[in-house]
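In response to reviewer comment 3 from the previous cycle, which asked for concrete evidence that the modeling workflow produces usable outputs, we include below a single protein chain processed end to end. The sequence was submitted unchanged, and the resulting C-alpha cells are shown without manual editing.
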Amino acid sequence: MNQDTLSIFDLSPSEKLQLVEDLWDDLAANPADVPIADWQVEELDRRKANLMSNPASGLSWDEVKRRVRSHHGQ
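The workflow returned the following C-alpha cells.
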C-alpha cells in the first residue's frame, strides 16, 4: 500500500465535519434513493398509526427541543 495515499482519517476534525455535511446534503437531495429497511418502515407505520389514533400522544417540536435541551443541559 502506498504510504503517500491520504485517508479520511487523516483529515482534521473540521475537514471531517465538512465531509459529513457534504455527504448528508448529497443524501438529502435524493431521499428516495436512501434505502430503508423493512423494520424501519414497519416502525414508522406503527408510530403513525399510534399518533393518528391518539393525537394527544404526540409532542410539538418546541416540546421535543425543550426536553432534549433539558436532558443535555443546553
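Helices lie at 13-29, 38-53, 61-72. We consider this sufficient to address the reviewer's concern, and the full set will be provided in the supplementary archive.
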